[in-house]
Write a structure and sequence with these properties.
Two copies of one chain form a homodimer. By secondary structure, the first copy, chain A, is an alpha+beta fold. Chain A is globular and about 55 Å long. In chain A, helix 2 packs antiparallel against helix 3.
Amino acid sequence: MQRRRDRHVAQLVECVPNFSEGRRRPVIDALAGAVEQTPGVRLLDVQADESHNRCVISFIGDLDGVARAALAAARRAVDLIDMNVHAGEHPRLGAVDVIPLVPIAGVSMEACITAARALGAALWQELRIPVFFYAEAATRAQRRRLPDIRKGEYEGLPARLADPDWVPDVGEPTPHPTAGVTVVGARRMLIAYNVNLRTGDVDIAKRIAKAVRESSGGLPAVQAMGVRSTAGQAQVSMNLLDYTTTPVHRAYEAVQAEAARHGVEILESEVVGLIPLDAVAEAARVFLRLRSFDRQQILEAKLMEE
Amino acid sequence: MQRRRDRHVAQLVECVPNFSEGRRRPVIDALAGAVEQTPGVRLLDVQADESHNRCVISFIGDLDGVARAALAAARRAVDLIDMNVHAGEHPRLGAVDVIPLVPIAGVSMEACITAARALGAALWQELRIPVFFYAEAATRAQRRRLPDIRKGEYEGLPARLADPDWVPDVGEPTPHPTAGVTVVGARRMLIAYNVNLRTGDVDIAKRIAKAVRESSGGLPAVQAMGVRSTAGQAQVSMNLLDYTTTPVHRAYEAVQAEAARHGVEILESEVVGLIPLDAVAEAARVFLRLRSFDRQQILEAKLMEE
């Protein structure tokens, strides 16, 4: 039937660029508008944080579409953002701080890496912004993680780029005079997942975070920190960088087990932003001990994919 | 953007007619073919059971489309099935035994009831099959449940229809000479959910089923029976008739609690056929203690609905 073909999702990539502007609404709107006006792309979400002075724009489309939309928004960002007068809580290197490409459906990580490299080349050629590649698109091990790349921040860029270890992947080793540097890469979809504890003792959350995060010997592909939630509870705030390696239920159960050592229970957990259907289905599958549960048994998934 | 409107799911109804043929493949193919050839309808699944001598055809579309497809398949069933030579394990009243309409998206139960009544009228007008309305479309309380309507089966129809309590909702009180009677209705999506126990003692499964099913004072909107699974385990086989009343996790936990009284654990559970996304998300939400989890946070759901 023709209808089936029409519904087929050919190639779907999520792009989640972070820009160094979280306060001036007209600037944020201009960035989002540049995305929205790009054919073949759909704007999903715009999140601005005033204290971070940073916004995150989420959109989807095919590889070609999201790359064009990211470039269009970057053009506006270079026009409207001057890093020399930027201040905010969140570490950053440039006006277009980071552009991750995330394969969702019908596209390989390899293809996203290739597209990220091409997008980086275009940022230099058209806008004269030097580019680092990160995550799956990194050209060397020490450029995989954003915290490593961001050391010294925008203000430290002239010294950083002069270091032979930190020559940009694309462009000359001098930051753009107002837009700094951009980090471009490809990564799996990340799940921002917080677990709130039945205690206000943030120190316990910090100890649990240390126990569960990969960097201190915990769960693979998990970043974690202990913070206070807006409601005042101790919170273990995590990024699940690869939910096929460490699924949501395993992060939950690891926090639960560590919390028990401190005599503390889990109050609740929360997903911040988007979560893939497969990650939700996997949690249901594990807790219900479902035998041979197939994503195609979910009515809406079946409707969408054929 | 125009694309958003194209993706909007306007009106989606599932139709799951049961026909009294589970052995003759050409007949089953003819019934499924009648559905597949109806514009605006998409065939999802065809399940035939030889011992039941019965097949279940699942398809979706808008109300108008699924009604036309059901009528087209009924036409073929009247041509090809003679109830006077039909035998099978499953209770049945007619060649087109039952036609349920199930609202999925963008359509009310009320609209499905209206469509079921119109479909019943068409079955009589065109094919001279008397019709009972059941479930949400029932015209009186004793016609809500299929087991009540099916008492006496096809062979008992002449006597049944002569009973003033069992005058058909549409048509004359005489069964169609070869196709009997059809039951048409509207109901919520049903989840077929089985829990396998770590025991081969079917008697325990039967006692658990009795404790959890609505008809003997258990969970609302749950039908349950104890049987032996194909792998030889004791199995509590359930229909969750309204997962918004009794969700999957509550059925699981009720079986778990009852099993514990017999010193038995749950081995695994299984969903037979389709399950709505909301039911899967609810199970994940409950087990992960997710705070304010919104279906729109599931990437694929967000992509589908806008």
